[in-house]
Write a structure and sequence with these properties.
Helix content: 55-70%
Oligomer: single chain
Order of helices and strands: EHEHHEHHEHHEH
Largest sheet: 5 strands, parallel
Radius of gyration: 16 Å
Bound molecules: adenosine-5'-diphosphate, thymidine-5'-diphosphate
Structural class: alpha/beta
Number of domains: 1
CATH class: Alpha Beta
Strand content: 5-15%
CATH superfamily: P-loop containing nucleotide triphosphate hydrolases
Amino acid sequence: MFISFEGIDGSGKSTQVDVVAEWLHSMGREVLVVREPGATPLSEAVRGILLDAPYSIDPTAELLLFCASRRQLVETVIRPSLAAGTIVLCDRYADSSTAYQGFGRGIPLELVEQANMLATGGLQPDRTFYIDISIEESQRRAQRRGEQRLDRMESAGAEFYDRVRTGYHAIAIHNERFVRLDGTEPIQGIFEKIKDTIRQYL
Ligand code: ADP
Ligand code: TYD
């Protein structure tokens, strides 16, 4: 089973990935947690460029870098793990490129889809949990965490994040694999809803 988690920065994806992985482990399941961009040496190196580059990156170059990282992760980690029967939990996946590079940066959606197809070879999650919070809540959580420095993506500004969030709503409405969750609910409540969905597959 392949499960992805999506949402704007600070929506609670990593928090839920952690508790879901622990729950699945406790039931004796093989679980692999990966994050995007990252989780392979190449993908982590690309992550460094994408988030920490001290220069601007052309939007299409940005899309291709996210997709290069994704391709390496899919081919060397995700596909082999799924073939071995492991449950893969992915903290962000191709929908992030649709939301951030498509809706956020304004790259035509059909081009983003083509790039994603090249990267994933058509591999889609069985379920995608979309955790929704407002831009204000995302900013509040970043402040609460005392983040001193915004990464390159986080520096894009509130209007960019507005487009990304609108994009996520549109993607969620048009894809049956999406489960939308209210990210302002307590962590445990969100976790229970995720468990209810995953149980249907176990
Ligand atoms: P993401 O991986 O989406 O960036 P995190 O899981 O790192 O988000 O969570 C961002 C911050 O919000 C953390 O400080 C976390 O403790 C907090 N958080 C996560 N889920 C909730 C929730 N449901 N309600 C309130 N705070 C939350
Ligand atoms: P990360 O710290 O992993 O995300 P979060 O703050 O949600 O925990 O940072 C990843 C950043 O990269 C985040 O701002 C979203 C962005 N991103 C894209 O723009 N496109 C993509 O395809 C992916 C996977 C991420």
